[in-house]
Amino acid sequence: MALLANVLSSSVSFVAASDGEFHPPTINEFFPPVIFFEGTNFEINRIVLIRFLMVIVLILLFWLGTRKMRLVPGRGQSLIEMGLDFVRVNIAEDLLGKVDGRRFLPILTSLFFLILAFNITGVIPGLNIAASSTIGLPLVLAVVSYVTFIYAGIKKSPKNFFKNSLFPSGVPLGVYIIVTPIEIISTFIIRPVTLTLRLLMNMLVGHLLLVLLFGATNFFILYSDGIFKLFGVGTFAFSLAFTLFEILVAVLQAYVFTLLTAVYIQLALAEEH
User: Model confidence over 209-251: pLDDT tens digits?
Assistant: First the structure.
């Protein structure tokens, strides 16, 4: 029972104001109490449990939607096929062509739906926090994207990939002193860093804003006096509007991350490499 109480209490993301004072959200929102294996390298808190949950949900959805494939698809199969076709047509084949698009489709599809599932938990009641709002997960996904980009380039041109990336053709010899360090930073450092930070900061800031708005609603309606209670109506309206916006951001960030991965693969497969 104590464990259950710990999980439930930590799952409440809006600000409690039981003492009659407003408490703004803090960075501690992203460091909930450890639930399992405390003091070990395998500590599991609420955010990690949400990740496990969403992985199970994704596996079940795709298994149920594809276990009995029919020529005339049912509702579940149609939804799964629409999602898969969206990644295949609008990202993979659009940027990489049919041959390379099909070759890298599994990794691009996995990235898109995994990020979408982890992002959308920020607006699911009872979960209330994006599973991608701590740096570990965005960093791992960025490493996957980075390794895929490097693999694509080396596979396409084992001898010339790094050479052409760091020493672009047509540049005067002396200018390489400036160009090559810039290429190292922009191609092999900035790309994974920006992928990580873009996903992390969007989910982190979005969560803090939702906590702030719902916390303000809770405070104004329950603990303020007189006309100040009307402010709660306004903050509640903003809360609902921003929740819809956060859903859009969750989808958009999954799309952007996957799209940029495909763009990097496309650059690695370019003929000059």
Answer: 999 999 889 888 888 888 888 888 999 999 999 999 999 999 9
Cα separations (Å) of 236 from 33, 79, 108, 130, 243? 28, 33, 37, 20, 10
Residue 59 to residues 47, 110, 115: CA-CA distances in angstroms?
Answer: 19, 11, 14
pTM of the model: 0.88
**C-beta pairs of 46-55 under 8 Å, 24+ apart in sequence:** 46/7, 46/10, 46/11, 46/129, 47/129, 47/131, 47/133, 47/134, 49/7, 50/118, 50/121, 50/127, 50/129, 50/131, 51/118, 51/131, 51/137, 53/127, 54/117, 54/118, 54/121, 54/131, 55/114, 55/117
Per-residue model confidence as pLDDT tens digits over 85-143: 999 999 999 999 999 999 999 999 999 999 999 999 999 999 999 999 999 999 999 99
CA distance 39 to 43: 7
Furthest-apart CA atoms within the chain: distance in Å: 75
Establish how many alpha carbons lie within 13 A of residue 146's alpha carbon, considering only the half-sphere containing its beta carbon.
17
- Which residues, listed in sequence order, are joined to residue 248 by a DSSP beta bridge? none
Two tokens at 190? 């900035």
Q: Using an 8 Å Cβ cutoff, are 202 and 220 in contact?
A: no
- Rounded to the nearest angstrom, the gap between the alpha carbon of residue 72 and the centroid of all alpha carbons in its chain is 33
Contact 150, 261 (CB under 8 A): no
Label the pairing between strands 44-45 and 34-36: antiparallel
